[in-house]
Design a protein that fits this description.
extended
Length: 59
């Protein structure tokens, strides 16, 4: 698998479905800034996700 296949593409659906009048999240109209913030949030979600490593033990 090459690096080109692993690249995260622009989150178009999340960009188009931003809440307009929300106090919790800010509307971001700049696509590059939105993608940057979205990738940071994705990294935070992946970092906090628990991994189930209780599979069969190999010695």
């Amino acid at each position: 698998m090459t690096a080109q296949n692993n690249k995260i593409k622009f989150p178009i659906w999340q960009y188009l479905n931003q809440p307009l009048f929300s106090r919790d999240s800010k509307l971001e109209l700049n696509p590059r800034r939105f993608a940057h913030g979205w990738r940071i949030q994705l990294l935070k979600r992946c970092w906090t996700k628990e991994c189930d490593a209780k599979g069969p033990q190999q010695y």
